[in-house]
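User: Just a sanity check before I run the rest of the batch. Below are the structure tokens for the first item. I only need the designed sequence back.
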């Protein structure tokens, strides 16, 4: 661990802090303002989209209507993407002549990109045509991110709106939230930054693959494609699917430390900005900064542990007469090094992004534990675009419920009482996540048709299984590697995992929003637990960690934790 390394981590944290307020204000004006910013330019595009879609922007929806709209839109997305993959061999923009995607892989990929997971059980440059990459996959990078933002706005409205008894119990309009997310937020950021990335060395073309001969006389195929446009939205939308199999470790996706830094900032930008947007909606900016502070604490602890573990080197090699001053460089790009590899791994698993610049399978046991735990905590450490916000708000409700038990009063959050219905829905949200991960991981650990895909046995093999289902249910999309997931069983079960991890958790969130939106705001009293101070930050962090630890610690003990002790005793992993 070096001063330069810590300086890079601190610089990154300060940049995220600096963009939180302006981006948060901008998004508040887009979604909650009386007049959206830059109306002369974006207004006609927005109105055209409403006319094409038959949407009345002045009409709002109940939580049931909002849910049905989201589910119908997502189901349509799965079908369209599946069809494009199966028919890509007869569609244009396929200069490589790639054939149709196998049915089970097409289902897995369609479910993956619809749910903002972007898990990839294939090599992008040898499987997907340019049209599939753009119309099938990058399209979802925009729409799935916009849907996540919509759900975050919906529960925020449920908590912050103060309605009269005669007012309708609505939480917004799904179609309006999605269209405004794309037109005002995602596209205006992506277009100029894609050009910046091209200027920094990312490729952007529709050229056929290049056949060349290396200096050593070896023939090699150099993949081409519209990479820069895919890269910027995959990071900004916390999607993570790589155009290339090596993802952001590929020099065409991130050629320099500067492009790497830009991409890391993009991953956290919107999730951080939404905390400030929430404070504006609550009419109390301290509420937003409290959520930001809880996320920041968990992020800094995670990156500190990952950096320490990777800088310390391989525990097995430490027993030998080998200098590991450079740290554990296995599976890492030299142009990024230990610091940025640990930082990127923490960011991408905090934010349910899934992009990688280093192979997590090659991390030390404790270094690999950090990304795994980040996902299993519910990916609320800034989290995915929208998903992190509504996830942390569920934990916020549980935290005030626990605080209410402590002071002997009905728990309140932003003046609204948290009662039996909301707590039941929040607990269902919390339990469905580990039920999917642990249930399917247990099945995969004993089924020969599942374990046959592993390249490692023992605790590391268990870690690979846990990581795969955690990544799928947490809609992260990164992989531990070492697992051949492109089989009928893995493609099917991981596809089901991703759909369940997305929609079985979104519907309870919207139900909570609908339950809270019409509640009367109660003035604070001496028994009200404050939710805007250091004490509440500590309570919120504690609830997130304890829920995750109690749920997953036994499984983690059999995976990366026992692997760490075996490595210290000289056993290879």
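Assistant: Here's the designed sequence for the first item:
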């Amino acid at each position: 661990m070096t001063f330069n390394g810590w300086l890079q981590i601190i610089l990154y944290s300060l940049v995220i802090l600096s963009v939180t307020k302006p981006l948060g204000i901008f998004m508040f004006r887009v979604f909650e303002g009386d007049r959206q910013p830059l109306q002369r330019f974006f207004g006609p595009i927005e109105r055209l989209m409403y006319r094409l879609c038959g949407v009345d922007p002045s009409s709002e929806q109940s939580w049931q209507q909002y849910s049905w709209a989201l589910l119908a839109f997502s189901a349509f997305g799965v079908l369209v993407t599946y069809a494009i993959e199966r028919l890509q061999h007869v569609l244009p923009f396929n200069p490589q002549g790639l054939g149709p995607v196998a049915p089970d892989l097409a289902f897995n990929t369609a479910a993956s990109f619809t749910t903002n997971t972007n898990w990839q059980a294939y090599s992008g440059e040898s499987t997907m045509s340019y049209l599939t990459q753009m119309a099938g996959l990058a399209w979802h990078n925009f729409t799935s991110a916009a849907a996540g933002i919509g759900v975050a706005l919906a529960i925020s409205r449920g908590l912050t709106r103060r309605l009269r008894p005669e007012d309708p119990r609505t939480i917004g309009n799904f179609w309006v939230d999605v269209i405004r997310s794309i037109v005002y937020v995602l596209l205006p950021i992506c277009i100029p930054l894609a050009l910046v990335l091209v200027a920094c060395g990312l490729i952007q073309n529709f050229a056929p693959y290049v056949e060349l001969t290396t200096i050593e006389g070896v023939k090699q195929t150099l993949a081409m494609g519209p990479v820069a446009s895919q890269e910027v939205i995959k990071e900004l939308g916390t999607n993570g699917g790589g155009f290339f199999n090596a993802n952001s470790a590929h020099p065409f996706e991130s050629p320099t430390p500067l492009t790497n830094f830009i991409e890391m900032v993009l991953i956290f930008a919107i999730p951080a900005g939404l905390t400030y947007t929430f404070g504006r909606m609550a009419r109390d900016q301290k509420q937003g900064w409290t959520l930001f502070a809880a996320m920041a604490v968990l992020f800094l602890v995670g990156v500190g542990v990952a950096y320490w573990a990777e800088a310390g080197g391989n525990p097995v090699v430490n027993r030998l007469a080998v200098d590991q001053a450079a740290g554990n460089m296995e599976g890492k790009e030299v142009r990024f090094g230990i610091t940025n590899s640990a930082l990127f791994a923490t960011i991408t698993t905090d934010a349910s992004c899934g992009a990688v610049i280093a192979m997590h399978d090659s991390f030390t046991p404790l270094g690999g534990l950090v990304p795994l735990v980040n996902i299993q905590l519910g990916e609320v450490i800034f989290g995915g675009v929208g998903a992190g916000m509504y996830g942390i708000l569920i934990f916020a409700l549980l935290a005030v419920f626990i605080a209410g038990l402590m002071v002997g009063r009905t728990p309140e959050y932003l003046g609204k009482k948290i009662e039996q219905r909301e707590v039941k829905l929040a607990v269902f949200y919390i339990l469905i996540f580990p039920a999917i991960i642990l249930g399917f991981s247990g099945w995969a650990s004993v089924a020969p048709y599942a374990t046959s895909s592993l390249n490692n046995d023992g605790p590391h093999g268990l870690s690979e299984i846990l990581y795969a289902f955690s990544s799928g249910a947490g809609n992260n999309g990164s992989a531990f590697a070492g697992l051949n997931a492109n089989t009928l069983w893995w493609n099917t079960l991981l596809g089901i995992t991703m759909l369940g991890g997305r929609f079985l958790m979104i519907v309870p969130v919207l139900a909570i929003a609908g339950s809270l939106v019409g509640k009367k705001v109660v003035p604070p009293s001496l028994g009200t637990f404050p939710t805007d101070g250091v004490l509440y930050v500590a309570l919120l962090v504690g609830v997130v960690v304890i829920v995750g630890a109690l749920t997953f610690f036994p499984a983690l003990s059999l995976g990366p934790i026992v692997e760490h002790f075996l490595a210290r005793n000289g056993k290879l992993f």
